Every structure is written in C-alpha cells, then in structure tokens.
Amino acid sequence: METIRNWLLPALLAAGQLAWLWPGASLAGETVPGPAGLVAVLAALAVETAALGRRRQAPVRALACTLGTLLLGRLAWDEGYFGWGVLVALYSVAVRCPVPVTVRAVAAGLGVEWLLSFVRIGLRPALASEWAVGALVYAVCVGLGEARHQWLKGRSAAARRLAGAEEARRQAGDTERRRLARELHDVSAHHLTSVVITADAARRLGDSRPELTADALAFAERTGTETLTSLQRLVGLMRDTDGGADPRPMTARIEELIAGFGRLGRPIEAELPDDLAGPAAEAVHGIVREALTNALRHAPGCAARVSVRRGDGVLELTVDNAPPRGSAPHGAGGLGSGRGVAGMKERAAAVGGELTAGPEPGGGWRVRATLPDATGPRSQSAGRRDVLREQRLADPALVFAATVLPLVFAMVTAEEWPGPSLRAAVPALLVLAVLVTVHAVPLLWRRSAPWAALLGVLATSWLWPVAVAVADMPARVSQFFATGALAELLAVYAVGVYGRGAARTWPAWCAAAASLAGVLVATAAADGELTGAGSVRVSAVVMFLPLVVMLAAVFVALWGAGLAVRRRRLRILALDDFALATSLWHAERAADAERRRLAARLRDAVLHRTAAMVEQARQGRLEEVAAEARSALAAMRELLHGLGESEDPGRRLAPAPTAVDLDALCRTLTASGRNVTLRGLPEAARDLPPSVALSAYRIVEAALGAGDQGPARVTLRRRRDTLRVTVSGVPLAVTGPVAERLKVQVEAGAGRITLEQTGIVRVLLSARPSPAPVQEVSPSSHA
Gly residues compositional bias: what residue ranges (predicted)? Predict the structure, then answer.
C-alpha cells in the first residue's frame, strides 16, 4: 500500500504530461518540440518521476532532481513542459524537513522559477506578475506542507505517548515490584538492621556499660514503632504508583535522620541547604539513609560526612565514611539484602540523576550522586517564549497569499493600460498593496484567536471604500479589492476549525457575508460604478441582497468544512485519549494486584514479628528483642528475594520470555495459519544478556503482532558484541502506533532501528554483557 502511494501521484503527473505531449498539444494547435527536444522532455520526465517516487525517503534530493528536470524541460519545450513535480517535491520537503531546510528549499525553487521567467519574458511589466504568481503558488504549497507537518508531528507524539503507555502497561507489574522492593529494602536496611546492631552492641558491652541496655531497648521500641508505621503505610495507604513528593522542605527530616545515626555512637558531619524539597529531596533522604546504614553495617563507629550542595540546576550529594579501625568488631554484613548500591542507583535514576559508589584511595567509602534540582533558583529568561520561532509557516504563507492575490490580478492587466494611466496608477497600486496587507495580517492569529482574527479582517476591509473615495483610485485598480476577500474566506474557515463551541460559531459566516457584501457595494459606489444620483441607493440595495445570498452560500460551505475538519480531529484525539486512558487503567490494575499480593505477604511474614519485637522491648527483654529483629529481618529478606513468585502455586508468574522463546512464538503463529520462518536462533541467542534477550523477543513479538497476515521471516545474526534482528513481511509494523512502540522499545535498550517502507524492520542491539555490580563493602582487609 505504501509503495502504491509513493508512485501513484508521480505516475499520474507523468501520464498527464505525456497526454499533453501527444496528442494534446497538436489538437490545441500548440508547437510540439523536435526530435532533440522530445528526447530531452522524455528524459526530464523519467528523471522527475523516479525522483518523486523517492520523495518520502529523500525529499531534499527529490527537490534537487525536479529542479534540474524543470530547467531541462523548459529549455527543451518552454510552453509545454509543466514541471509540476517541483511543487510536489517542495510539499514533501515542507512535510518531512525542519523549517530552515524548507526555507532554503523555497529560495532555491523560486530562484529557478524566476530565472526561467526572466529568460522567457525579459524586463517587462508582466515579469512582476509572473514572479508574484510563482511566489504565491510556492507559498501556498509550503504552507499546506507545513500544516501537514504539524499535524503529523502531533500524531507522531500521540502515537509515541500511546506506545510508551502500552509499554508501561506491560511492565507495570515488574515496575511496581521493583519499587516495592526498594521501599522494603529501606525499611529492612535502616530500621531492622539498626536494631540488630544496637542490641548486639548492648549485649556485648552490658557488663562494662550497663546504661547501653536501656538505650538499646528504647531505640528498639522507637525504631520498631517506626517500622510498623512504614509497613502499615505500604500495606494500607500506598495506592499511587507515582504519587509525587511532598512539596514541603525536607531538610529537617534529613537532619533528624542523620542525628539518629549519630545517636548510635558515630560522629557525623552534615552540610545541607535549608530548602531541600521535591523528588530530588526524597531521593537524597533515601540515599543518605542507605549509605549511612551500609557504613553502620560494615564500618561501625567510624566517622562519616554528608554534604549536599546546590549547583547549576543540580544537587551534588556526597556521603563519605572513614575506613574501619583494625580493632573494630566485624559489622553485620550478613544482614543486608545485597542490593544496597543498586537500590541507591535506582532511586537516583528515578528522578533523572546518576549515582556512583566505590572505595576511596585511603580505604574509606564514598557515595556520590548528581540529582536534578527542580526547586532550585531558575533563570528569569526560562519562562520567555519566542513567538516568531513558534509561528508556523502555514499562517505567514496564507497571509502572503491573501496579500499577493489582488496584486497579481492587478499586474496581469498592467500592460493593457495606456502609458499615462499606468504611471498614474502606480501610487494607487501602492495603496492597494498596503490595504490588502493590513487586511490579511490578522490571519496570523487565526489559530490562537480565530474570532479576533475574523473581526480584524472584517474591520480592515472597510478601509477599501474609504481609500477609493479619498485617494481617487482608478477603476482599473479599485476593482481588484474584491479579490482580497480571500482573507474573509480563510478567517471563517478558521473559526469553524479553531473557534470555541462549534454550535456557537454560526454567527461568523453571517457577519462575514453581510460585512463583505456591504464593503463591495460601498467600494462600487465610491468608485462610481453605481451611476445616477437618484438611483444610487436603489442600485446599492439591488446589488447588496443577491450578493449577500451568494456570499452566505460560500461562507456556509467553508464554515461547514471547518466544522467537519474540527470533528474529525476531535474524534481522533478522543480515540487517542481513550486508548491512553485504557493503557493507564490496565497499568494501575496490574500495580494494584502486585501491591495487594505483597501486602498479604507482609502481614503474614513481617508485621507480627515486628510487633513482637516492640512488645519485647517494652518488657525489657534484650535477648528476645535481638532474636525477633533478626527473625523479622530474615523474613523481610526472604520476601525481597521472592517478589517474583505468586502466593498460589498454581498461579505462579511465568518467567519473562527471551530470544530463546522466539522459536515457540513462530511455531504458534505458523500453527494459527500464518507462515513465519525463523533463522539463526541457536547461535545468536547463546549467552545473550538477559535484558537484550528480553528486548529481542519483545521487538519481534510487536512486529509480528502488527496485524499482517502474509508470510514473514525473522532473522537473527550475532557478530561480536552486536545482535542484528531483521523482521520482513510486516508492512503494518513500519508505520503508526506499532512503529512508535518499536522505537520506544529499541531506544529503551540503547539500540538502533530502521523501518523500511517495504515492510522490513531492522534492529541493532548491543550484546555486551552488563558490567559487574559495584561491591558494597570496601575490599580493604580491614573491612
């Protein structure tokens, strides 16, 4: 289908040119080129057709070729070679290229067109009208192309949002599990690990420092209560997957967190801004808690320093701890879940930042994070908008067309005027140019303020009869004011498309018809066309009534066309919103299911042990507090490692499919009646990183599921550290929402994708193994 669309229009243009070449020109009595000219025309036509067939893939190259064929064809057959391919190629450039490229393309096209006009006409008054007509046609062509470009850009953005939402829906369960795992890890790492370490220290030093027992029991009771509160929040109150951060400053909470670690017997220095807030502050809180917990676990009693500095739109977080002393007892390294650094990196990446962690040259440990500061000072120019850069080419092109059209009609007949009349009409032509320009300028705001644009057009049109009466303009010039009514037509259409309240926009065509009819009658009366002093009013009425009826019919048709376009666009947007809302709803349902499943396991495995720990602390039983804390921590760790399993053994979550499962996918499709062949699977899928294997499967699955019913072929090739995936026979997968979904999936894996119009999807993925995770504990022998 896409191939037919590419070649249908070039074929029709070529057929029209050939029909005019023979027998059209002979029947019309036009001169037919000789043998050499005929060969040149046919060669130009062949090159033009071939170039236009590639206008969607290479629009600039197609325009360059058509400009060359225009020169060749016009030189060989000046009066008979159409050269319409230039307009088609220029339209494609405006649709598919940025504005600077389009502007340069217009300049090149006009340069060639004006050069040919100068060669054909010479320095005559008709040359100005020829140049004006060329500029008018090119402006309208580019304006239509730019309007199409904006529409396609919006559709592409909508398709990308829908593809992203669909991908989020498919990964909602995994995303929620990862988020809940991070929350649970924070609870286990900070609260329960601290209780275990404090209780162990109090038991070990109870004989020499008996006051530590009371402090440890109080700390266990307080921390256990905080743990119960956090778990209850996870079980009962957490309903929003991305609920946003508390807008209030969090500096006090972070300082309280640091002070709590200081009470455990380690000196901690802190340097924090006073107004930390937003998602970045939430990330700072979680990273500091995790980093200090790791330091407490692996280097107990050693000094630490927390620093948060605000830079150019970012927060620089640094957590340093000194190396453990040789005589210090071994930390509680076996109590962690083994994903502390990974959790900190995930927390930083969730707000768009980066985090690194590793040993220092002196034997200590440093955690460094760079986070975007959404609440920091902003430059005053951040909110400024460049209206000229945001202005579309379509609106200036329409203003130019409404301005030039009356001038073109006036200049076309300029050579027929006698010499004195022509010289006398030059000032009148200047007045005409100024008036039609002022009349068309309000169209620049036809999208943002359609009613104001219409009122501006109607108001400036009443300057016409005033100018005719005051400036004493010749009849040959003043009669061309009527062609300026193009501005009214465009303004009424804009009200139908962009005006608020479709049912309340009908006064637009009524006002336009009455106003334009009155302007034309008044201009005719001021120009002396309504002769006879006693019959001027009667003639005006006789002219006004049928003119209103005719104009009303035209304006109603344009207004109805605008409403039809408006309804079509709103219907498309409504379908997009419905699809997006459906994907988000399914994603939320999947996340809710994960939360309910985890909540049940939390209640059964952790909550009652934590409550028992608090009760034992209140009764002063230190041994039982340590035992219950370890038991709750072990249950939490087991829960973290088993998040991928279902409560019901008969409904366990299936493992994520990988490239190895492509064989089963292709066999299933073949069994359903579609011929799908697979090549290169065993060698290409061997030892692939899990993320790459999953991406390859999802990409092939999406391409084959686009809706095509014909035969398809899947080819996998492994070369060193790259995996090439080629899916052919899927023309529906290279356009529309499926193509956008494929782009999102490939970009998420840092790969490259090529979509060919013949129905081939080519994907290049990096098959390099993921780097080994950073160690949480310094490799120093003192650790």
Answer: 331-340
Across the strands, what pairs with 368? 318, 356
The last residue of one of the domains, among 127, 154, 181, is: 154
* 84-87-92 Cα angle (round to 5): 130
What is residue 355's three-state secondary structure? strand
Over residues 101-123, the pLDDT tens digits come to 988 999 999 999 888 888 888 77
What would the pLDDT profile of 82-102 be if each residue is shown by its tens digit?
888 999 999 999 988 888 898
Taking alpha carbons only, the member of 682, 745, 680 closest to residue 714 is 680
Q: Which letter does DSSP use for residue 265 in this model?
A: T
**CA-based nearest residue to 178, from 354, 342, 351:** 342
Give the pairing type, strands 712-719 and 722-728: antiparallel
Domain limit, last residue, from 154, 169, 188 = 154
- Residue of 427, 413, 570, 439 whose CA lies nearest to 498: 570
Within a domain: 495: no
Judge whether 595 lies within some domain: no
Measured CA to CA, the distance from residue 256 to residue 263 in angstroms comes to 11
C-beta of residue 553 within 8 angstroms of C-beta of residue 513? no
Tokens 């100068």 label which residue? 118
Number of domains comprising the chain = 2
On the question of pLDDT at 382 being above 60, the answer is no
> How many other β-carbons are positioned within 10 Å of the β-carbon of residue 692?
22
Largest CA distance in the chain: 126
- Which residue in this structure is represented by tokens 């430059």? 379
Domain span at residue 35 reads 1-154
CB–CB of 696/725 below 8 Å?
yes
Q: Cis peptide leading into 300, omega within 30 of 0?
A: no
What CATH number should be reported for the domain holding residue 737? 3.30.565.10
In degrees, to the nearest 5, what angle opens at C-alpha 230 toward C-alphas 643 and 372?
85
Instruction: Give the total residue count for the chain.
Output: 783
Contact criterion met (CB below 8 Å) for 110 and 138 = yes
Residue 176 contacts residue 595 (beta carbons within 8 Å): yes
Residue 314 near residue 372 (C-beta atoms within 8 A) = yes
- Would the pLDDT of 328 be above 50? no
Report the candidate in 14, 51, 54 with the shortest Cα–Cα distance to residue 758.
Answer: 54
In a domain, 60, yes or no: yes
Helix (H, G, I), strand (E, B) or coil at 547: helix
SS (H, E, C) 202-221: HHHCCCCCCHHHHHHHHHHH
**In-domain check, residue 68:** yes
CA distance 283 to 270: 17
State residue 400's pLDDT score: 83
Note the pLDDT tens digit of each residue in 592-609.
777 777 777 777 767 777
Q: Decide which of 513 and 23 is more confident.
A: 513
Q: Which two tokens stand for residue 524?
A: 């005719």
pLDDT of residue 380: 38
